[in-house]
TrEMBL record:
Entry's transmembrane regions: 20-46, 67-99, 114-132, 153-171, 183-202, 223-241, 314-332, 344-361, 367-384
Main location per the UniProt record: membrane
GO molecular function: ligase activity
Source lineage: Bacteria, Bacillati, Bacillota, Tissierellia, Sedimentibacter
Descriptive protein name: O-antigen ligase
Organism: Sedimentibacter saalensis
Keyword Transmembrane helix appears in the UniProt entry: yes
Length: 395
């Protein structure tokens, strides 16, 4: 089915068809993220050339996000760097808009099947990485003095922690309608996903997934079972293979954790010097050496989404950041209570919980690959909700 931007509200002589673009974009976001952004950018330019000012007439949350992006550039001392990040955020906003305008519940079901297949392929790429004798990883990804570990898989995600976060998304989604008595895509995603999740050796991903599944048991007790399975696999295999990733004493003296503490200490000092407006998007590496003798200048992020938001956009931007989180959580919980079939909203609640827990010790949520995927997911949820409202009013 072909869709036109703005549901064919553009003039027929100057319309921009995006029928298969959401599918292509989501597939590329997993397979090769630069191509996904190029695709979104091309549609954005075509959209803009047709004078569809999607930035103007959006909801309140959308407007707040625009203010957030504007602040991240306006008060930066290195505006060229921050502007590049702003473009990424704008394209993510546009992808949200694109999915919101083009998706329906029926289309979302088709998209889910496609992304399951693409993800299983990505999972197998990760497994092949692990068993490839020539595969190696940067030394900074693991403390060899603390752990019996020399490989961590990342598939097409460039980093094990980013891959682990994505695997969590897929496992949570699969748990929504998982039936161990039926061999289907959900079961395949769950089993291959858990295997890959272990091989990322991403403790943050392991713990955030288990914690979010436990929290979800408030709404459905079946998630206790899934939390138990994930816990048994991660803790059990970590112990059996003698890796030690979940050993509290090893974790406490792990160089990556100690390095995070140094980053947080430096960021707190930066926040004190730039409390209201922050230092701008993507410029931490320009400032960090003045506040720390330990942290290298090529640091990319704060390893904490809350500290990163405060550092980059100050108290004002952080307030917007928290507003978006609370507004999203309130909307999801409301839909869990009121929707006739609330499974999609329970899944959304688990994903949000996982992201917020994960964000306590890493900034994966704010990386370009995950941010684009989450924007498309949010747009799809918005589209489904609007479709439900239309059907309700029609009845």
């Amino acid at each position: 089915m072909d869709y036109e931007i703005l549901n064919s509200k553009l003039n027929s002589g100057a319309s921009v068809k995006i029928g298969s673009i959401p599918y292509i974009t989501l597939i590329l976001s997993v397979a090769f993220i630069p191509a996904a952004y190029v695709t979104v950018a091309a549609v954005f330019v075509a959209h803009w050339s047709n004078k569809d000012m999607f930035f103007i007439s959006r909801d309140y949350e959308f407007k707040m996000l625009k203010v957030y992006i504007f602040m991240g550039v306006l008060f930066s001392q290195f505006k060229a760097i921050s502007f590049v990040y702003a473009i990424i955020y704008i394209l993510c906003l546009f992808s949200y808009y694109m999915f919101f305008e083009s998706m329906s519940e029926e289309e979302a079901v088709k998209l889910k099947k496609i992304i399951y297949i693409v993800s299983i392929i990505a999972f197998f790429i990760g497994i092949i990485q692990y068993f490839n004798p020539g595969f190696s990883i940067p030394g900074k990804w693991v403390d060899a003095n603390q752990f019996k570990l020399n490989k961590r898989i990342y598939s097409t995600f460039f980093n094990p922690n980013i891959f682990g976060f994505y695997i969590n998304l897929l496992i949570i989604s699969a748990c929504g309608n998982l039936d161990f008595k039926k061999i289907n895509l959900s079961l395949a995603v769950f089993l291959t996903g858990i295997s890959c999740l272990f091989l990322t050796f991403s403790r943050t991903s392991w713990i955030s997934l288990i914690a979010s599944l436990l929290i979800a048991s408030i709404f459905n007790k079946k998630y206790l079972k899934y939390a138990a399975i994930v816990s048994a696999v991660m803790f059990g295999m970590d112990y059996v293979f003698g890796i030690g990733r979940l050993n509290p004493s090893s974790a406490a003296s792990d160089s990556s954790f100690l390095y995070r503490i140094e980053i947080w200490k430096a960021c707190i000092q930066i926040i004190k010097d730039n409390p209201l407006t922050g230092i701008g998007f993507g410029t931490l590496f320009k400032h960090i050496s003045a506040y720390s003798t330990v942290v290298k200048t090529n640091i990319e992020h704060c390893h904490n989404i809350y500290i990163q938001s405060l550092t980059e956009t100050g108290i004002i931007g952080f307030g917007i950041f928290l507003f978006i989180i609370f507004k999203s959580a309130a909307t999801i919980i409301k839909n869990i209570k009121t929707a006739q079939d609330n499974q999609i909203w329970i899944t959304a609640f688990i994903i949000l919980s996982m992201a917020l827990i994960h964000g306590l010790v890493d900034s994966v949520l704010l990386t370009p690959q995950i941010l684009l995927i989450m924007s498309m997911y949010a747009g799809t949820l918005k589209a489904i909700k609007n479709e439900e409202l239309r059907m309700k009013n029609f009845k």
